[in-house]
Amino acid sequence: MEFMTGVKQKETLELPALLAMAQEGEQVKVHGTVHTIRDMGEVAFVVLRKRDGLLQCVYEEGVTKFDIKDLKEESAIEVTGKLFKEERAPQGIEIRIEEIRVLSEPAEPLPLAVSKWKLNTSLEAKLNMRPISLRNLQERAKFRIQEGIVRGFRDFLYSQGFTEIHTPKIGAKSAEGGSNLFRLDYFHRPAVLQQSPQLYKQMMVGVFERVFETGPVFRAEKHNTKRHLNEYTSLDFEMGYIDSFEDLMAMETGFLQYMLALLEKEYKKELDILKVTLPKADHIPAVRFDKAKELVAEKYNRKIRNPFDLEPEEEALIGRYFKEEYDADFVFITYYPSKKRPFYAMDDPADSRFTLSFDLLFDGLEITTGGQRIHDYNMLLAKLKARGMTEEGLEQYLDTFKHGMPPHGGLGIGLERLTMKLLGEENVRETTLFPRDLSRLEP
Predict the structure, then answer these.
(1) Buried-state track 7-35, b at ≥16 Cβ within 10 A, e below 16
(2) pLDDT digits (tens, 9 = 90+) for 191-250
């Protein structure tokens, strides 16, 4: 009988351990995928793709106990050899190979040249062969940075006293309403895929006061644009005992500052690979919805066509205006019209046509929607009635407020959109691992 006592110490070493070794000529063992082979005759450079980057290994005829002609790119191998410093190599080190053990090898050549610095192929081709295209270093770096965004979100909110929750994605009724719902049969009962965790995170404010979640949300929107997905990851938080919705904007600003500092410190290698210059979030301007429309209409000679909504072109112009006038990469648009917000949004007591809510634009694109919620039970009932909505499917949500709730609010951030803008990409599918849109259900 065997007993597990914890993580096993492996003979094979990873890049951080190799880089920490001070003595040259020490024998080491590593494993990795053959990223590329440059055969120079008596000498060949075998570059391994590791989880932390590339590692150069040197094959020498007569020294290495292996025939280089038997080695294929994308083979998984184990290498034994001596470690030396080499400034011209990736990481500044190389292994002079003594032995190679092949762990597995591909059945056929790759359909994409993933070892090239940049994949010179279409987005469609990259998405159709996603598990292969992601092996490219630049493609892979995008999602390491996305990891950093989520890590920053979690770490920062933990530091602010938030509790992480996980809410169901199948429900009887949607938080947002409207027609853009994926409907399904749930054991002979009608159900929907959730458009957001909104109702649940509000209920949990009554339990933990401050909660957050990272998870998928679903929108059955028949859009086929560069900014829309039918399934995306939402970074959500909800907090109680707020004085105003400005508390929420301040919390998001704190997150952005923390996340950008984390990326600069822990993900510099990936930022350099992608040549990314991070934006500034030290001072983020906040402007009323109606005022923002007036500012861009005046400066760019653009007629206001819809006083109760922001068109994509207007968002782009608002981003341009605040970059030109204040050198701001982000801008909060506040007091959104009530008709463009869900029933739970709290109306502005001074003018019920508007709400105590906001969007955050990053480089002219909306990446966040948030605001203060109605916490009074009777006020919620009145808002439902005014909207022509019924209480059906909302009974347990409403019961939460019947038994008392503090003033609260929250927001949701589109992870893929935020990543897209940080990396300067033009299409949100570039920063989505496996996109789901009007035409794509695979891979």
Answers:
(1) eeeeeebebeebeeeeeeeeebbbbbbbb
(2) 999 999 999 999 999 999 999 999 999 999 887 889 889 999 999 999 999 999 999 999
